[in-house]
Amino acid sequence: MAEEGMKGGVLSSGLASILSDGGQKGVKQKSHLISHFDDIGDQSVERTIEYILDLPHKSICRSPTPVDVGFIRSILKMRLRRLGMDWSMNNPDSDGVSIADSGFGSNTVYLNSASICGEIQSVRDPLLIESSAVFSSARANACVWKGKWMYEVTLETAGIQQLGWATDCSPFTDRKGVGDTDDSYAFDGRRVCKWNKISKAYGQSWVVGDVIGCCIDLDTDVISFYRNGVSLGMAFDEIRKMRPHIGYYPAISLSEGESCQLNFGSRPFKYPADGFHPIQASPCYGSSSFYLLQCLSRLLEVQRLDKSDSAYFEKLRRLKRFAPLEHLYCPISRGICEELFDIILPNEGSSEFIAWGVLSSFLLEIFGSQTPHDYSSLDQILGLLFEFNGHDSLFQHLIMALSFNCKTAPLVLVECPYSGSYPYLALACHMLRREEMMKLWWQSPNFEYGLEGFLSRKSPNKQDLELLMPSVWWPGSAEDIGSENSMVMATTALSSAITKIEELHRELCLIVVRFIPPTSPSQLPGSLFRTFLHNFILKVSGADRKMAPSDSSNNASLVSLYTVLLHFLSEGFAMDSIYCLLGSSTKAEGGEAFLHRGGKRNFPVGLFLNSDPHRNFIPRVGGSVNHLLKSHPVCDEKVVWWDEGCMDNDDDSWITHSTRQKPCCCFSTSDVGSFRTARDNVRYLARTSKGMFTPIPDRSFTAECTAGSLSNVIVGKPSSSDRSEEEFGCEPLQHMGNEPVACELTLDVLREEELLDVMLFLYHLGVTPKFRQAFYYMSHQSHSLSLLDDTDKQIRERSCIEQLRRLKEARKSYQEELVDCVRQCTWYRILLFSRWKQRGMYATCMWVAEMLLVLSNAGSLFLYVPEFYVESLVDCFHALRKSDPPYVSSAIFLKQGLASFITFVVKHFNDPRILSADIKDLLLQSISVLVQYTDYMLALESSKEALQNMPKALLLAFDNRSWIPVTNILLRIFKGSGFGSSVYAESSSSVIFQVLLREVCIYDEGLFFSFLNRLFNTLSWTMTEFSVSIRDMQESTQVGDLQQRKSAVVFDLSCNLARVLEFYTREIPQAFIQGPDVNLRRLTELVIFILNHVISVADTECFDNSLRRPVQCHEKSNRSMILAPLVGIILNLMDATLDPTYGEMNDIIDIFASMDCPLTVHSGFQYLLGYNWRKALGGDASLVKLAQLEKFSSYLRSRIAVSEGLEDSNVGPAEDDDDSRCCICYASDCNAQFQPCRHRSCFGCISRHLLNSERCFFCNATVTEVVHVAEKSSAVQL
């Protein structure tokens, strides 16, 4: 006789028994259908009903009346009555928990509003909350004092949250929350610690989508926590026992912007812990609904057996046949559903509990978590449920339950590629293809929240990655070849899983795009998707709440939505079918994807000009929208048109989608074929750790952009199935909702340009931080490899036991860091660097760069361009440039389509129309990076815009904010042209730009002198800062890494500035040796100033320590870095004095001899001559010039001796008052005076002061002119 009661799964004993061989849990096993009964032959109707309803054998007597719905319901009612009695007997005693009525019912657990400290808002019922104060805390309205209890918290954000338990006596303040006082216990996964007055390390770091189980065992006085069903271990023990009705309350503390969803038992737990009960008791109808759905499952099994044509089932039918279901299916199925809805309708909240629990599990079991999916059975069940009143609420909750599961489902390696959110997404996509189902979802108040949940994808933390990639391998590791193969297999499986999830994301978004809401007036396809995009942007940017979210980069929906839009625009967006619905003739010529269409292009600039709430908060390059509309109104121009390639520099070298030679983005290879294994990627990183562009193997690009190749696939059917729409049993979604509307409607159809606008904003908010994290781990991986190799080398060389012990400990730490970096790099490589994504990013860069150049020439329109357009363009370009594996080689990266990016960056890095200094810095930093590589330097030299405007713009941009990137650019251009610099010379130096910079300085003397003045001031400041840092290090008992790093950075900057100054003394020496000697004197003072600090005996040790940076070659961090440009400056000036074309010149030796402490000056030159240049510079050709320096030193020594002799001979009685001496320098006579205040000083000090200020340094009066005292007729007008 069959066992009574519910079984553990949907397939219980009876017709279908799963015979497993003890295989791995969670892996779908093959099942064998075995008859439950002993006798052979046809079975009666009664026996069939007994099996389907899980009744004892021969418990149903033969009925003289036909089997109808009433007969089935009568049997079910008796069975359900027995289940209700069993539930009452097995339900845990509610003693031990006390729930205060907060207006939601005596048995409903909510947050107690009276306990809230700070500001906690209910974002969405039930219990989705967010903190809008700096720190907010709250307790629930229920406490426990005995037994074992738990509640779950689903993380909407992953910042600082303290989750746990607290008594009613634990005070909450704006600084203290859960875990900060006695009898208060919390876990914080952001800081990975537990709290009870003090914090201690505990648990794992959490991520968005984690489900944290907070458990308290008052029988053993222990508190523990679970992460996604996995115990984190005991957190607290020996907690204080409580009296009845005075116990521990569920309590939480959230920092500003943090959000989470609480579940005290109103929904089934995602990960119930054994032995722990929900604080809010589960309803009795949970077991009843579970039983009814089991009956439906068995009914479907019998039906499949009855209809199957396979030889296996035919043989089984000859042995045993149940009564045909031809006349039984309808009364049994309707009877089951009527009983189910009789449970749902009278019980408030029952539809939510059933949908989130047994119904979602039941439908997923029917549908199948892997392919091939059972579409027909699912459609049969859905069609049946739609016939009953109450199905609307049930299905709305079901969709939200599937959305929640997409957000919380982790990837599991053994389930790949059908892992993570795939099963729930596949089920939801098929359901939502039904018109009535999509309409129900749209009518739900949680539609947008649900869509965001479907687009979520749970990211792994460190421990998750260890499970996903159990074996890690890199070149030179001690692991065997098996680990290498294991990592490759894991990487391939994860990549396949991500690909399938992304396919379903696109399918779901297409369903929403095609849906026409049944509203009046009629809407167009895409209007619902547009509204979602606008509201989503407001949410993720924080504009809807006037506060920034905690961390938008952790919003997985943001990245997924960006990926969807990128695929639509790059690989094909099925808008053509929508245009046909509208009766519109608008269609892409040839059917190419939007980003790859050649010929005429256009952009609706009305996107920039409107001040809609979802765009008004976005800053523009020219300021705020409201300000621009008043100060720079534009005409009613709605669309800007241009020809692709019109902004290229050279007409003969155009590379567009219409030319014979195609851009890089027109070539595509399969992700499977081109996906680098983990081994290859690690080798690539190791190879490129010393430089980004090591030559890479050529790739074969096999397919160009073809007409509509992907659009046709997307329109026809979902990507997860091979079946046609007719076989799904539902209408194609493009015919949903209202009848097709005419194209004369005034509403705008969703355009690709609008999707591009949103995609760029999503990239700026969420994708850019992901790339930065990826490149951080890639850089750290290369660094860890270097440290590990260096440590291994030291271990082989050391013989001391203590040193070996320390080195082995360090090696273990480095290896752990390296293993973590390899896993992180592999994960980001899977997530971000697919071939089609790189192709789309490349096409996006081309499109946006060209559009911005067109708008730049369109007058005031450029002012309205959102800043995120520029930021996304630059970030996307550099993400492609540093991508791993590279999209294309650097040699063709710019030549085949991205020359316009160079033009834009060069044209606008000092554009006065751009108000944001951050945007200008971003553009300038791009140039600073590009000039480091030969291929990009050649691209700059080929750009007309760069040749015409960049040299002058660089000098203008050298100010208090941008002097560092400008210095780096100039240094790269000048590389190899100074004294001793050929040792470090790089091929990225540019003779062309050296000539152009020289010409700009010669023809614009005012610009050059202004630049030279700022250069003098900046170099003086950096050397002063370096001197101060050395002094601080000398006075400190222990030098910190940050202090040493600061000193090293300032020293590098000083060396770079000195090299720039050296270049100009070589190329434009007349600026120093002719005319007023102000520049020469300032140059001389700087040289002496630097020499004094370098050769100071007291600073020698600290100076050397400041140059000892980790992982840097000693030969690149010695004193020659700063001494060599000083020697070059002196030699350049000496060479210039020998050139007769300069005519009358200033006496260089006399200027040096006139400096204070001439003996110190002489000592500095002796140090330069005695320095071991051959060791520092090797065989540098400029060493032969040291003889000139020795000659100069000899002249200087003679001049100093003569000067000292004259001074000795003129020694006489001291004068009481010498008003003729300059009180600033005490070296020259007061031969000039300010007007109108008439204060006097020497002309040199006055001239130098006026370079930075036009006020008298005595009285601060405004100076109108400077008059020479000796020559009253000579005046300098200001």
From TrEMBL:
Catalyses which reaction(s): S-ubiquitinyl-[E2 ubiquitin-conjugating enzyme]-L-cysteine + [acceptor protein]-L-lysine = [E2 ubiquitin-conjugating enzyme]-L-cysteine + N(6)-ubiquitinyl-[acceptor protein]-L-lysine
Biological process, per Gene Ontology: protein ubiquitination; proteolysis involved in protein catabolic process
EC number(s) given by UniProt: 2.3.2.27
Coiled-coil ranges from the UniProt annotation: 797-824
The entry's keywords: Coiled coil, Metal-binding, Transferase, Ubl conjugation pathway, Zinc, Zinc-finger
PROSITE patterns: B302_SPRY
Start and end residues of each B30.2/SPRY domain: 89-269
Gene Ontology MF terms in the entry: ubiquitin protein ligase activity; zinc ion binding
Top EC group: transferase
InterPro entries xref list: B30.2/SPRY (IPR001870), B30.2/SPRY_sf (IPR043136), ConA-like_dom_sf (IPR013320), RKP_N (IPR045737), RNF123/RKP/RSPRY1 (IPR045129), SPRY_dom (IPR003877), TPR_RNF123/RKP (IPR057987), Znf_RING/FYVE/PHD (IPR013083)
Pfam family, one: SPRY
One GO cellular component term: cytoplasm
Name assigned to this protein: RING-type E3 ubiquitin transferase
Lineage, opening ranks: Eukaryota, Viridiplantae, Streptophyta, Embryophyta, Tracheophyta
Primary gene name: RKP
